[in-house]
Write a structure and sequence with these properties.
By secondary structure, the chain is an alpha/beta fold. It has 18 helices and 13 strands. Bound molecules: pyridoxal-5'-phosphate (PLP).
Length: 447
């Protein structure tokens, strides 16, 4: 049986207050009105803010400023960060980049993925995973999503692979590793290069190894919302020296790895300028002093929240794949079933949740159905590279029903909501159960 709780009390503190517990039933009736309908919200405090910094970051930035070395062509901080991030992830090499998108672009170029190639990817991801494939004039081939884990469903690979398939980009969505036990053997079987999109998955592990080290390379983002943050920033990690060398050259206007960073001749390849600055590197090294402790807090809170939500009908936290030994918890993801909430649509549920002081999001929409993709693949470039018949087949096969369903059901909480005390998790669970108790009244509200 679900109980009513005083608005600013957690379930636990409430039941440890004998007088309140004795009065549970009348209080529940009096205080259980949903905030969206004029009741008191479960939570009025803000969740922890992001980013976090102190004197360490201030000193690091000032030191960089005063050094006069603001970029890697003369500074040393980017090199230092690369050494530290390689050590943190257990990879042989790290290349810092301007952002996660740049890390993915450098990977595709280093692996020589280009026009005519097909690249398999998950449709449950941020648009950058797709854009980098299109920027190479490669053909993105979406493989469906496993609705339980929110990750790429490896069973779809065999159906979508072709003679032109050159690479696969498994995305560790929300910070939870995709099922690499199933994806990597398929990639080997079909001779696909593997770029792990670990942009959301700092410190996540698959069977004790950091994600990003299991494919040919892994890409990370340090954009402002990420668990490791320098406003913008990114990194590519790899154990493959040749790949590192090629990615380095590509990211620095084609200049050779370990050569004069300012040379004006004898370029190793073509390239772009995708370099990180020394300011970002300095910030990242300061932020990295906190990353482990923050990761542990998120893990503990997420585990507790999952335990709390297990008993709530219609709320299904994303299942972790069997080999996941560490989730980065960039997002806490769950599925919402309106049937267990008297048919209240997800949109209304999220509004009611926000009114209770718990901000949630509905997450991604089906990426494979984004109208801009059709504009790209019907362009003269794509028609010339792939031909009408192949593009027609692509359109027919571009179906991901599991992903479509997931996009209708998903609810996300951000990583910062997992950084506070355990009582915050009590309040998240309490707000959800409060809405469930009052779903009948909520249903009557206009969406
Ligand atoms: C899954 C995924 N891939 C790629 C990116 C791109 O990273 P960035 O924004 O640093 O370019 C992001 C960032 O949001 C992401 O979440």
């Amino acid at each position: 049986m679900r109980e009513g709780v005083l608005p600013h009390m957690t379930r636990r503190t409430f039941f440890h207050t004998p007088a309140a517990a004795a009065a549970a039933v009348p209080l529940a009736a009096a205080n259980d009105k949903l905030a969206i309908q004029g009741g008191a919200p479960v939570r009025s405090a803000k969740f922890p803010s992001w980013p976090r910094f102190n004197q360490l970051e201030e000193n690091a930035l000032l030191d960089t400023l005063r050094s006069g070395h603001w970029g890697r062509t003369t500074g040393k901080r980017v090199d230092q960060f690369e050494d530290q991030y390689a050590r943190l992830t257990g990879s042989k090499h790290c290349l810092a980049t301007a952002n996660g998108t740049s890390a993915l672009i450098a990977s595709l170029n280093a692996l020589d993925i280009g026009p005519g190639d097909e690249v398999l990817l998950s449709p449950y991801t941020f648009v950058a995973t797709l854009n980098v494939v299109l920027l190479q004039h490669a053909l993105p081939v979406f493989t469906d999503t496993d609705i339980e884990t929110f990750q790429m469903d490896a069973r779809g690979i065999a159906q979508r692979v072709s003679d032109q398939s050159a690479a696969i980009i498994p995305v560790h969505v929300g910070g939870a590793p995709a099922d690499l036990d199933k994806i990597l053997p398929e990639a080997r079987k079909y001779k696909l290069r593997v770029i792990e999109d670990a942009c959301q998955a700092h410190l996540a592990e698959w069977r004790g190894k950091k994600v990003g080290t299991l494919g040919d390379c892994g890409c990370f983002s340090f954009q402002a919302s990420k668990n490791l943050n320098s406003g913008e920033g990114g990194a590519l990690i790899t154990n493959d020296e040749q790949l590192m060398s090629r990615a380095y050259s590509f990211h620095s206007n084609g200049r050779a790895w370990k050569a004069d960073a300012l040379s004006l001749s004898a370029y190793a390849s073509n390239g772009a300028n995708l370099r990180l600055t020394d300011f970002q590197a300095a910030l990242l090294m300061a932020q990295m002093t906190r990353i482990e402790e923050q990761a542990r807090t998120r893990e503990q809170n997420a585990a507790y929240l999952t335990k709390m939500l297990k008993s709530v009908p219609g709320i299904q936290p994303a299942r972790l794949a069997d080999g996941c030994t560490r989730n980065a918890w960039h997002l806490y993801m769950l599925r919402y079933d309106p049937a267990a909430f008297e048919g209240v649509p997800r949109k209304t549920f999220l509004k009611a949740l926000a009114a209770e002081g718990i901000p949630g999001a509905s997450g991604y929409t089906p990426l494979n159905k984004e109208p801009f993709i059709e504009r790209v693949i019907s362009s003269r470039h794509y028609r010339r590279i792939y031909g009408e018949a192949r593009l027609k087949l692509w359109r027919e096969k571009n179906q991901c029903p599991g992903n479509d369903k997931l996009c209708e059901q998903a609810v996300w909480f951000t990583q910062t909501m997992l950084l506070g005390p355990r009582s915050d998790m009590d309040q998240i669970a309490e707000a959800i159960t409060k809405i469930q108790r009052n779903a009948g009244a909520l249903k009557a509200l206009k969406a």
